[in-house]
Structure formats: C-alpha cells, structure tokens
Amino acid sequence: MNQFIRGFFLLAALLLSGAVFADDDAGKADSVESELAALNAELMLVEEDLLYPASSRVAVYLALDVGTFFRLDAVTLKLNGEDVTHYLYTTRQVEALSRGGVQRLYVGNARQGSNELTAFFTGIGPHDRPYKRATSVKFEQSFEPVAVELTISDDTATQQPEFVAVVR
C-alpha cells in the first residue's frame, strides 16, 4: 500500500511539473512521457494486486477459433449465480479475436472452495439466425490464482459452433 501511495504522489508531482518542461526541447518531454507511461503501468499492476490478491483471483479469457458458424455479439459472465460482467462486441473487436487475439473478459475475486462460472454467448448462428448458448465450468479456488479460458470454435462435423470453458 505504501508503494502505491508513493507512486501516486510521484505521478501527481510529475503531472504538475509538466508545465516546466514546455519550453525545453522535445527530447526531455518525450522522456517524461515515457517515464509517466511506465509509472502508470506499474501503478496499475500494484492496484490489481491490491484489489485481487492471488489467493482469491480468478481471470477469464476469451478466444475465437475460426468463427464460421457463429458471429459473436455479446458475452455475459456469472460467477456463482451472480452477474459479474457483460460485454458487447464491435465488428472490429470480433475481427481481432478471429485473427488470434485473446481478450481478458474479467478479473475478480472468488471465494475459497468450490465455484461455478457460467458464460452466456449471444450472436448470429448458422443460417443467420439469432443464437444463444451457455457453457459452465466448476473450479476449486485455493491459494493460487485461477485462469479460465473460454473458446468458441467451429465443429465441422455438425456445422455448429462449440463453446468450451477450461480451467488453466
């Protein structure tokens, strides 16, 4: 916590002193900007560690594999029956996922012991019809962080999309 507060005050001091560098050459301004960006990234990591300790952290990632039989519109996640996130996708985001991108959908805390994560996928399925499917996975939260991978892939044998959740 002390490191977080010290970093916050350092960031504030650098932002307030930005006017001093206005007359200096562009090299110094670029240096200050890169230092601020590095400090901001470090502060975000410290904040994440404070909000989501490793002993209760669960992270959920989404990936698309091919995507011919399903066009993703939205994902809703429930952890132990409670809504934890809902995400609507733009065309560009779906294209990025289909090119191999992976999205971190959710980072949060789960209680120790048995938990259940359910993902609801909404989109356009085969024959351009509205399509809604869900997949669930149960996992044990111990003192280590848990990562859940959600994958949407094409099942060419049935010509249907397949939704899989795997704990890593």
Protein model, in words:
The strands form two sheets. The chain has a four-stranded mixed β-sheet with strand order 4-1-7-8. It has a four-stranded antiparallel β-sheet with strand order 3-2-5-6, with no helix packed on it. Helices cover 29% and strands 45% of the residues. The chain has helices at 2-16, 26-51, 91-98; strands at residues 57-65, 71-79, 82-88, 102-109, 113-124, 130-141, 146-155, 160-167. The protein is α+β, with helices and mostly antiparallel strands. It contains three helices and eight strands. The mean pLDDT is 87. It has two domains: 2-51; 57-167, Immunoglobulin-like (Sandwich), CATH 2.60.40.
The amount of beta strand, in percent, is 35-45%
Q: Please, how many domains?
A: 2
CATH architecture verdict of the largest domain = Sandwich
From the 3D structure, determine the CATH topology of the largest domain: Immunoglobulin-like
Spatial order of the strands forming the largest sheet: 4-1-7-8
Mean pLDDT: 87
**What are the secondary-structure elements, in order, as H or E?**
HHEEEHEEEEE
Task: Count helical runs.
Answer: 3
